Batch of 3 targets.
Target 1
Amino acid sequence: MLQTIAWTGHAARLLDQTRLPLETVYVDITDERQMWDAIKRLVIRGAPAIGVAAAFGAYLGIRHDESDSLAEFDAHLDQVCTYLATSRPTAVNLVWALDRIKGVSQETRKQGSRSEDLMVQKIKQRLLAEALTMLEEDKQVCRKIGEHGLELISGLRTQHSGLSVLTHCNAGALATVAYGTALAPIYFAHEQHIPIHVFADETRPLLQGSRITAYELREAGVPVTVICDNMAATVMKEGKVQAVIVGTDRVAANGDVANKIGTLNVAILAKYYNLPFYVAAPTSSIDLSLASGAEIPIEQRDSSEISNGLGRQTAPDDVNFYNPAFDVTPADLVTAIITEKGVAKPPYVQSLKALCPAGTGR
Ligand code: MRU
């Protein structure tokens, strides 16, 4: 199974996803500025993966800290976390992970130490340990999502011969530490020799579907067919898919979900063609502090991703571009939200609260 991020003992090693599918290249990240840049440029991407990456980024940012006092150290850690949080705004996992890192720092000091200097050393060790825990936890969380998701989709299989699902963008192993969210049920089905096939929307402008989803499914031996984004309606109309499964960057309290731009189109199509539209997410992507998707910050990216995204200029000079990286699918188009703690169904205000009493994460 491909792994997006690993700790080498002195650096966070990232699989450079900007180079896929042609090159499998790893980069070693040794400070918070490099991590910020890697997250911003999508060297590492996908909500759960950038959460874990940010946790390592925070440790890398303070590991050489030589503060004399805890107050100075705190200020430094806060500054590093605030900086990393500016890399990408939509995925709540990023802030969730950084809050968790700051929480570990606060918890550690409650245990006391002979001197402030020793305490700073102890906190540094704990922060690295927490980032490593998050790395391992993410794999377990994705496995659980896979189990719950497979229960849902294998029900569809009894009505059809074989099972074909459509996904948008990449919410697979390469968007997490391993397995993925939307693709986890598919890997589980494949492991259990349940015949399964995936239609992968290519996902303009940056082609995460064709470059990344198709790459990782092919590596795992799962049959995959890449389609252009504007072909999803035809595939549904022709009866070639039985369900849609996507990931998400943030789920609001009412069940509205932000995901890669174009997800909303797919959800509307699924409703029209009477197909279930499932969203797979760790509870760290749930943000009950936001009442609805209208409050989710949507990342705007550079226009060159549209005008020069395919390695050459594909639009005339001097025209306008609009490049939101995510859209929000309203809860009434979402059949169910599959998490590691179970499956939330409408009404989401109640079901999400029951799964996530603390508001987000564990
Ligand atoms: O811009 P990206 O590639 O980070 O967008 C990723 C997505 O939209 C994923 O579907 C989402 O982060 C969920 S990943 C499990």
Target 2
Amino acid sequence: MNAVLSKFKAPKGTFDIIYPDSENLEMILRIGYETLILHGYRRISTPIFENTQVFVRGIGEDTDIVTKQMYTFEDRGGESLTLRPEGTAPVIRAYLERSLHSSGVPQKLFYFGPMFRRERPQAGRYRQFHQLGAEAIGSDDPAIDSEIISIPDAYFRKLGLKKYRVIVNSIGCVNCRKPYVTFLREFLEKVDAELCDDCRKRSQKNPLRVFDCKEETCARAISEAPVISDYLCDGCRTHFHSVLGMLDALGVGHEIEPRLVRGLDYYTRTAFEFIFEGLGAQNAVCGGGRYDYLVEALGGPPTSGVGFSIGIERLLRAIDLEGIKPVKLPRLDVFVAAVEGTPREAVLRTLSILRSASLSADTDFMGRSLKAQMRHANRLGARFVVIVGGEEFERGEVVLRDLDSSKQCTLKNNELIHRIRLVIEAKSGANNE
Ligand code: HAM
């Protein structure tokens, strides 16, 4: 590598996705999209930046994301914009702006794309990461909560993953949270001296968030704290029990985790995470829940919603840890080698004919000798080499070499595709037997 160029590095907390990882990513996305489409979700793509207020109002101004992690900038027109730290608030912005309710509710939408949070980078925590997420907007039916939880479960099973747990909780609504927060604050005042600075602030502004603190001293101090599930109002309790019953009916194994709270303020009632063994501190591969006030927070009418997002980098790591090989990388069908002196146009024409017949094909662009071209074809894992040039070229023929059997023959140009197809089909037939 050129020493001058190599001083540039990807920004901290970001990375390049390079073949074959890029191939694994494509494969897991394809299965993810198929799973979502099977459940009746349709894709939406929103811009990667939004007006900053979409996130401040949506996620909540006292959350860690909004206070510490957003990439916010003023553009040349003086507007405050933010690279999206998550996908739910933008989807709701689009739902309202485009009046998506008019084409029927619930609107079942999914998205994939990069998200940006200026967190302290560590394994599984990046500043640019990717989420595959889904949102069902417009229904408060507990059946849709259970559907939303069952989708990542179906998806992870399809991928062959086993070592994960689904944890669920209900964090109530405004009615039950108000009295609960009073009790929680009273408790936190008693243990104030044992809390970290952040949790002391949280206990004033957003006391539920103390359950999300990773400090051991805080965890100890709040081990006896009252939990929201003991304070749910009748409506929230009934809703939660229905969701759990439906998860049982769907065969989605789950555990109730009364201390599960989420890092975004928009949640109400159902909250859940998919936790993978062996991923270390950042072990949540998927998180989500219900957000019955978010649409109003962004200026819309009272509208329920529920959704999830999967962290794709963590999912790829989980797949790797479980030893799953996502894709058998496709081979290059044909490498077109040229005898010295053969017109480049003849090589390009052969390539184009092969590719038009849906055979993957490549050639030499480095002026290599025929021997070096054969070595390169092997390095690329090609199945066949077609040699263009020499006397055969004058007669309208090419040499076809099968790199698996090391046999070769001379063919008329117009027989080439047919012969390659015959060999490939015979081979795939034998593999399927
Ligand atoms: P979240 O829990 O903040 O929820 O993120 C969802 C998932 O994104 C996490 O479980 C994790 O796998 C991944 N993730 C989050 N931050 C990072 C990071 N810095 N580096 C790598 N992966 C990360 C949400 O974003 C909500 N919008 C989910 C939702 C959708 N709720 C309702 N609908």
Target 3
Amino acid sequence: MNTSEQRIKIALQKSGRLSEESLDLLTRCGLKFTQSKDQLFCYGENMPIDLLFVRDDDIPGLVSDDVCDLGLVGLNVLEENRLGASKAGKLAAYDQLRALNFGQCRLSLAAPEDFDFQGPQSLQNLCIATSYVAILEDYLQQENIKADIVYFSGAVEIAPRLGKADLICDLVSTGSTLAANQLREVETVLESEAVIIQTSAETSDDKQCWIDRLMQRLDGVLQVRESKYVMLHAPRGALDDIVALLPGSESPTVIPLDRNGDKVAVHAVCRENVFWETLENLKGAGASSLLVVPVEKMLA
Ligand code: PRT
Ligand code: ZN
């Protein structure tokens, strides 16, 4: 497992909105790198896994062409690549392994505030500015709408003010960019978040073993992020109500606290965050001595 062909290469965004969290996720999976983020390449010290830092738009192609085995990229970039390739008669050769629960945004249509949007039909014969031509074309085709698309590589939100388009189709997260440009989100075209993809090219058994191991750790890391360990005391009679209130928990451990088992301790892993309201409701149902602690690692 030492030659460079046998080492796994993961493509990550070099510098941008996904960079920090992508690297953080892999570090949490226990990977150690000889790291210098300004370099294009990072050597994995404790596993045969190296990182390649590139522009996000290049990630689907690098994975599809089997230059990299894995890639972390926004679903929006992936879909644009897949639909673009299919239009050119090519097949994008990668499989989506997991959604990564960061980089959330949506590709949305947005119009000037006074635009009377009554659904996709309102787009008929209008002009829409976007960086996501293939996704927008696909959407318009599915809705049976004829509209002109004008390509903007960035600052799409200024297109209506420049008189270049009637609407835009762009990524939105908080919505503040749209508001600052007197635009209103009218329709979501695609919900997006960061995902991890693997090349569809044949992978050696050795490499696949490491990829499976990495995915198992990744599942643990993703589950742990929101998970909490909850401990509480309760009268046995209130157990059903209390268990029903624990968010996303599976069969908690119940330990008798007195000789006849009327009072019990309940320990549960909750796979969702536990808010103050939940604790108050648990207390209302008869629970006492409530304790919520973060979970460090989890292996199913
Ligand atoms: O240099 P490189 O090509 O690698 O980076 P890039 O400039 O193309 O991408 P980058 O770093 O801006 O974004 C990388 C990925 O982050 C995107 O492909 C999305 O998957 C994800 N992401 C999440 C976002 C946003 N949220 C986001 N808000 N990408 C862009 N935006 C922009 C959007 O285009 C608009 O200009 O932020 C603005 C809107 O934000 P709000 O909060 O005002 O709504
Ligand atoms: Zn980009």
